[in-house]
Amino acid sequence: MKGKNDTNSNLLKDYKKEIKKYIKFIPVNFIVYIVDICVFISLFTLFIVNRFFESDYISWSIIALCLYTMFRFSFLNWFQKNKYYKKIVVYNFKEKVGDGEMLIQREVSYNSINFWIIIIIINLSTAFFANYEVATFLSNVKIMLALTNTALNMLLLPSFLFSFQQIGQIDKNVASNYHNLLKDQFFSNKSLFDDVEFEDYYLHLKFKKNNLVSRNGLFIYINKDDVKVKDQQGLVNINKKILKIYKELWESYYHFLEEKSDIKVSKSRLHTQYWIERIYDHIFEDFFNL
Predict the structure, then answer these.
(1) Would residue 28 count as lying in a domain?
(2) Helix, strand, or coil here: 65?
(3) How far is CA 36 from the centre of its chain?
(4) What range defines the domain where residue 98 resides?
C-alpha cells in the first residue's frame, strides 16, 4: 500500500515539475500584491486598536487608508490592471531572422481563485471599516458622510463585480467545445498532432483527423511575397519548433489524463492535481480556435 502511494506521489511530482517549466513569476505584480496585503494588515490593526482608544487621529488614518484602498482597487479593476503575479509562458526564445533577432513568445494569463478571494475579502473588509468609522466618527459631519457613502457606492460596486467575474473568467463556449471535442475524448486523440498541416501562409494549423484548427497568431506569418526567399526557411523552422513544443505538451497532457484515474491522492494533494490539469487546459484552450 505504501509503495503504491509512493508511486502516485512520484507521478504527481513529475507532472508538477514538468508543468512548472511553463509558469513564470512576475516580481512587480507580486510586490504590489504584498504591499496591498501590508496596507490591509495595517488597516485591520488600526481598526482593532481604535476600538479601545477611540482616537480621532486613528479614525482619520483608518478613513484615509480605506479611501486609498477603495480607490486603488476600483481603479485597477476598472482598467483591468489587477493581475495575478504568475503567468503561463508556452514558449519564449530568440531566433535570428534576416539581419536581426526576433523574439518569439506566447503568454497565457490565468487566474488563481485564492488570489481573487483575498482581493474580495480585502474589499469587503475595507467597506465595513469605512462604513463603521463614518457612522461612529463622522456622523455629524454631513459632507464627509455623503462623500464616503458616494465613494463606497460608486467605487466598490464595479470593483466587486469585476473581481467576481475574474474568478469565473473563461469563455464558456470555448471551454465547452474544448471539453466535448478534446478533453473528454482524449483517448481518441493520442495522435492528435501527428497528422497536421499549416494553412494560409502559416497563419494557423489544421488537424486533418477532426477538422480542428489552431488560433491565428500562434505561429509566424510567412507572406512569400514580402519575405525574402533566404529568410523563409528560417521562419518555417521556427514554426516547426513551436509545433514541436505544443506536440510535446499534448503528449504529456494525454499521459496525465490517462494516468489521472489511477493516481489516488490525498485531499491535501488534490489541489495540486487540479492545478496541473488547469494549466494544461489554459494552454490548449488558448491554442485551439473553438
Answers:
(1) yes
(2) helix
(3) 19
(4) 22-167
Do both 162 and 176 map to the same domain? Answer: no
Query: What's phi and psi for 268, nearest 5 deg?
Result: -65, -25
The pTM score is 0.80
Eight-class DSSP state of 179: I
Cα–Cα dist 124/127, whole Å: 5
- Residue-level pLDDT at 79: 63
Mean pLDDT of the chain: 80
| Structural domain contains residue 262 | yes
For residues 48 and 33, give the distance between their C-alpha atoms in angstroms, rounded to a whole number. Answer: 23
**Mean pLDDT of all residues in 193-218:** 86
Split at pLDDT 50, 70, 90, the class of 1 is: very low
Residue 73 has pLDDT above 90, yes or no: no
Cβ atoms of 224 and 202 closer than 8 Å: no
Residue 147 lies in a domain: yes
Q: Is the pLDDT of residue 90 over 90?
A: yes
Neighbouring residues of 284: CB distance < 8 A, sequence distance ≥ 6: 178, 182, 249, 250, 253
Surface-to-core class of residue 51, CB atoms within 10 Å of its CB (0-12 exposed, 13-18 middle, 19+ buried)? exposed
The reported pLDDT for the residue numbered 173 is 47
Single residue among 167, 185, 214 that ends a domain in this structure: 167
Domain co-membership, 27 together with 151: yes
DSSP state of 55: -
Looking at per-residue pLDDT, the higher value among 148 and 113 belongs to 113
Same domain, 162 and 177: no
* C-alpha distances in Å from residue 249, one per residue of 19, 177, 289: 9, 19, 17
Q: Which of 240, 185, 196, 186 is nearest to 218 (CA)?
A: 240
Q: In the chain, pLDDT over 70 holds for what percent of residues?
A: 78
**Within a domain: 100:** yes
Cα–Cα distance for residue pair 45/112, rounded to 1 Å: 27
Tell which of 146, 167, 188 closes a domain.
167
- Does one domain contain both 60 and 138? yes
